[in-house]
Amino acid sequence: MLALLSLFDSPIVRLLAEILAVALLPTVAFLALRLLGAEARLVQARRMAVDLAADRDRVLAELALSRERLTETRQAAGRAQAEAAEREVRLKALANVHRELGERRTIVSSFRDAGA
Predict the structure, then answer these.
(1) pTM for the predicted model, two decimal places
(2) What 8-state DSSP symbol labels residue 9?
(3) Cβ–Cβ < 8 Å for 41, 35
(4) Could you tell me where the DSSP H helices lie in the chain?
(5) How many CA atoms lie within 13 Å of 69's alpha carbon, on the beta-carbon side?
(6) What is the number of domains present in the chain?
């Protein structure tokens, strides 16, 4: 064990450690800069996600409003269709009454002509 500890105390190991420390410094600085850049991109991506979520919520609200309007329009169309059908029935009944009155007039006229 002492041999191992004395190995670390040797000048060559110390020199290698100093060389590694100097060599690792630019690597650590490079990685730190890359990490800062990644963090900045992450912040930007989060802002973009928030903006997209707000846009999505706005579109969903507009869609819900459009669905409500479509439902109201369908209901109005149904009421108009029912009203048109009711008017058609009344018009047919009126036409039948008019036809019956016309037939009665013809019958009455023929009786008058026969009696005269």
Answers:
(1) 0.52
(2) T
(3) no
(4) 2-8, 11-115
(5) 6
(6) 1
Compute the distance between CA of residue 42 and CA of residue 38 in angstroms, rounded to an integer: 6
Task: Give CA–CA dist 9/6, Å, rounded.
Answer: 5
Q: For residue 46, give its domain range.
A: 17-115
* Alpha-carbon distances, residue 5 vs 8, 14, 26, 54, 92 (angstroms): 5, 12, 29, 63, 115
- What the block records as the tokens of 7 is 């190995």
Question: Token pair for residue 77?
Answer: 């169309």
* Per-residue model confidence as pLDDT tens digits over 21-73: 898 999 999 999 999 999 999 999 999 999 999 999 999 999 999 999 999 99
Residue 101 scores a pLDDT above 60: yes
The letter for the amino acid at 19 is: I
Tell me the two tokens of residue 35: 């990490």
Tokens of 96: 């039948």
